[in-house]
């Protein structure tokens, strides 16, 4: 896992995020707030225009929330409809709970290919708001969830670092904030 560190202190190729799929995003946020994790940055609706789910055009919308606990980002994801998705799969198989870990990928295409060569299916891919590509590999045969690869870009690092910086100095005020409130 050699390489540079992110602006929020994790190795670039290390585990950047732990994610959970939830039935009710705001109830889940409240539970994490009770544990002292916050502030939470929320995206109420996301439908990636270029998303692919298991080789087909993705039609599933989600809500997402991000916060930091120390140097680790916590992500909460709630499906907003009944369309098939990597999130709906987990909810239907075992209910709310752990969904994936996310790793940074400086050589995104090479790393996606490496997982695929090892037999892990590409379950979902998209471009996120920072312009970075993401890919979810179905590693559930060997791990408790998916692995998400996040293309490491200066914009994505700045976005995550802004959330980290907010958590470092958070005094409990404004516990839920929109993504648009971030300055990076």
Descriptive notes:
The protein is an alpha+beta fold and 184 residues long. The protein has an eleven-stranded mixed sheet. The protein has a single domain, classed as 2,3-Dihydroxybiphenyl 1,2-Dioxygenase, domain 1, CATH 3.10.180. Helix content is 24%, strand content 35%.
Number of strands: 11
The secondary structure category is alpha+beta
CATH architecture classification: Roll
The arrangement of helices and strands along the chain is EHEEEEEHEHEEEHE
Q: How many structural units, i.e. domains?
A: 1
**Helix count, per DSSP?**
4
CATH topology: 2,3-Dihydroxybiphenyl 1,2-Dioxygenase, domain 1
Organism: Sphingomonas chungangi
InterPro entries: Glyas_Bleomycin-R_OHBP_Dase (IPR029068)
Protein name: VOC family protein
